[in-house]
Amino acid sequence: MDIEMASTHGGRGEQLSSLALRCAERLSVPFRDFYRELITPLIYEGRPMPDVRGIPVNGTVDGMLQAATIWVKAMNSLMDRSDLRRATLLPWRQSLAPRALVRTHRAWCPVCLHNFALQEKTVYEPLVWRVADVVVCPHHRVRLQVQCPHCGRGRQPSFGASTRVGCCRGCGKWLGRLIPEEATTIDELDTFLSRSVEDALSLSNVSDEIDLVSSEIAVRALRDVFWCGSSSQMGRALGVLPSQVVHFAAGTFPAPLHLFVRASYATGASMEQIFASNRFDVKASAGREPHFEVKRSVPRRLQLGADLVMRLNNALADGGKQSVGAVAAALNITGTTVWRRERELASRLAQMHAEYAGKETRAQKEKYRTEVIAFITACAARGITPGRRQVDKECGGVGRFSSDWKRAVIKDAMRQVAMLPKRTE
Predict the structure, then answer these.
(1) Residues 41 and 62: beta-carbon distance below 8 Å
(2) Helix axis angle, 242-250 to 215-226, nearest 10°
(3) Residue 306 phi, psi dihedral angles, 5° rounding
(4) pLDDT for 204-251, tens place per residue?
(5) How many Å separate Cα 208 from the centre of its chain?
């Protein structure tokens, strides 16, 4: 298949899931058919295929585990290429801990997508957006979005039956847009982290094989050069338990991404120095002494529970404008799950939203009634008797399939107009 990756150099290379979606678009077929007819036979080559071939819904195809390996092999075979490992985090398998590294749902910068379309460039989703720790776009200083502004769906999967790059997985609408500068200040460390991840991914976004420094060698080099070989000093400086630093340096398990980013922030060492050359300039180090909190990994199930409680409490504090269903859609879970996990909060929100919806409905009805009376009165002053559909259209309706209360309001207004004295010439 003759299709090129959107970015073949730098730290904003295309993620594999985005490339797969663009392949389906090039063939003008739904992604469901592309996956079932082209990808699945390559994945199960030499093995019996399952009867039910469901589309993968998480982001592991862009990560560094088995699913990424299988997909890279299949896409390389389909496109007659051999370098698609760089569209995933597979080159970093020996350098970074896989746990909580990849975001299992989509995130995007709406300004980047808008500019891709405006400048008539290839619309794609960079691999850097898949890294879980990246929460801001350093180029536009806006937070990455995870929830559709049109339908409110959040935690969107990479793939869907008929999905397209840059579009919502729920309603299908385009996600690119210009947004005003955020009122909240973007944290300096978040921006630094995003730029550092892009710098790191630029090392692996090459067509040739890249030999990155393994995790334990990188940790030992940083510890020995900047912290005099002391795991305790390094741990305290970077907000990591000293016992973990010992295990990272010994190679018991790889270090997480945030350790290297914090080390780069504190020492001024670049990602290229940490993962490629291991040559550090101590005299030119940043010399910062930031305070980092100890970061402990949280199981995704517990994280989902915490996010659910936070969103329910935020909805309650907002006066019940959001329903339980809207909270569920934002987290891409069912309403039943919300009620099962947080029955008390969901019950309070449902009651508050019902009261809010009632007030909004009464306000909308009163507004509609006022507009109808004003319009019919204006028409009567000109000697015109408008029809019901015309009245509904002029007052914000569609003119057809009106509800009973709208018809009653218009009918009552018409009766009042009929009782007015006739206009004399």
Answers:
(1) no
(2) 120
(3) -65, -40
(4) 988 777 789 999 999 999 999 999 999 999 999 999 999 999 999 999
(5) 30
